[in-house]
Amino acid sequence: MDNAKPSSQSWRQALSEVLRWCLPALLVGLALRAALMWSMPYGYVQYDSPDYLVTTQRFIEDHRFFIHDKRSYLTPLLFSAAFLLPWPAAVTIAAAQHVMGLIATLVVGGLVRMWFRFWKVMIVPVTVLFAANPSIIWYEHTIMGEAQFLFFTLLMVFAGTLFARQPTTRRFVWFIVSLLAAFGTRLEAKTFLLFAVLLVVLTYGKRWLHTAIGFAVVVLAYVVAFHVSGDRDVSSLVYASLIRFAPTESRSTPEIMPSILPIREGAREISIEHPANLVRISKDINLAVGAYVAERVQGRRKQAAEEGRIVRNLCLETFKAEPVKTLLTPWVKFHLAIDAWSSYCFDKRSLWENQRDNYVMKDWMTTVLGRGLTGQSLTTDQVSDWIREHYHASWVLWFTGYQEKWNQTLIFLRLPDHDMPDERWVHDFYGGVPGWSHKVPGLPFFYIIGFAGMLWSFVRRNELRAFHFAWVATVLGGLYVCSMVGVTNGRFRFVYEPFFLLYFFLFFDAVAGMLRRLREGQNASAGHSA
């Protein structure tokens, strides 16, 4: 591998330029984050938070390493580190993630500098919009994996860009380190294997030894990362999205259909055209398949494997019966939630009712982690009073209004909305178009232009063309997989939205470059004629 090193002077100059041009974004981002920390110093404990904090609980009680089957390894470990500090972890986690958000702003600025031809024109609006994004700030203030998923994804893309520009051994190693970090934040990062493989193959090209070594290292990193992560079976959620057009009979497991058909008919009664009530349907599928397997298979591990096999076969049979509808399902779900916030809300119900339930759903949240998390020992009966003392929706009403205005601005310019006969189902819904409950929202131009910028990056001739092909294929593939697997809501596009922002502006950067070349060509022709 080529070991040429960029000069330290060029690095210092580039860093100085990025810092200088990102200063407006850093000031805006710091002001918003400081205001939220001042309004509500303690981070929000969401429904998924115990999944991440169980690692800390097992460290304390059992003195062993444990990862929840729905989570990866890095975020629980970083959350555990917060419990070693002398301050409440609910405060330090939120503060640390806000700092990560400011660092991420610099990373975005670095991407603009490397990706854009007219980067000095584009860097301020791109970084300010990134730093001011309320969805990003909301996740930073919440004890869950999204903020770290975004942060380490941006670092991975930054490292990948550097590697694509100059494929040295050192840059390849940094890319692998960043890839392992991204793998460690959420299980959805499995799709980044596609990015890493494509990047290595396209960057090294016909240097077969380099390609073979790089490919092997990438695959090894993937295997190691997900060997120590959870391994959740999501096939029932996929089948819940497809069950409306599932066949009446099953060739793989015919005896299961009497239990499945009532669930299918119930889904059709809700809506024939659109997926709805996916959480309830998924639970019903699990209950039906679980009861069927329990009568035939002994041992919980064998039962789980058999349940997964049956549901995956049902999904495959549905695809064979209705391939077009199956393949279009992720697009339908993505479109149905396109007007929803990609984050949730700090309203009274979330802060008081939901958060109390999140604290007491596991006894160890108070008995084992209570003092480290909140700064004081709490019993289950004391949780409500403590929450009401430290969280008030009125304190962050300004932020909730900011989220609403941001979303309405984002979706203001869109294609026409369309009426739908059934009620539109979006999980954990905030935001929306007027009359949203029976409307299919029009696709906002922000996403249309973002898609156009992605496609343009494929044909734009520069040193990063292969990189963009690898990353855009991963973004679109990741969105497709997440939309197929998950419930219908905006949360699953969260990590990709900053890249829509980058490609939105990259489209105009490319148009500006094309217009400049056209003008230069016209001037050259005029000069030649003269």
Question: How do the SSEs run, as a string of H and E?
Answer: HHHHHHHHHHHHHHHHHHHHEEHHH
Q: Judging from the principal axes of the Cα atoms, what is the shape?
A: globular
Provide the β-strand percentage band: under 5%
- Give the quaternary arrangement of the chains: single chain
Main beta-sheet strand count, sense and barrel state: 2 strands, antiparallel
Strand order across the biggest sheet?
Answer: 1-2
Helix fraction, binned, reads 55-70%
Q: How many DSSP-defined strands? A: 2
- Taking the alpha carbons of the first and last residues, their distance comes to 51 Å
Number of helices: 23
Which secondary-structure class do the elements indicate?
mainly alpha
Mean pLDDT: 92
Low-confidence stretches: 1-5
Measured on Cα atoms, how large is the radius of gyration?
Answer: 25 Å
Written description of the protein model:
The protein is built from 23 helices and 2 strands. With 530 residues, it is mainly alpha-helical. A two-stranded antiparallel ribbon has the order 1-2. α2 crosses α3 (74-82), α5 (119-131) packs antiparallel against α23 (497-529) and α15 crosses α22 (465-485). The model is unreliable at 1-5 (pLDDT under 50).
Structural topology:
Layout: H1 8-39, H2 49-62, H3 74-82, H4 89-115, H5 119-131, H6 134-140, H7 146-165, H8 169-183, H9 192-204, H10 208-227, H11 235-242, H12 257-270, H13 278-294, H14 300-321, H15 323-336, H16 348-360, H17 364-367, H18 370-374, H19 383-390, H20 397-412, E1 418-419, E2 439-440, H21 445-459, H22 465-485, H23 497-529
Antiparallel strand pairs: 1-2
Helix pairs in contact: 1-4, 1-5, 2-3, 4-5, 4-7, 5-23, 7-8, 8-10, 9-10, 9-22, 11-13, 11-14, 12-13, 13-14, 14-15, 15-22, 16-19, 21-22, 21-23
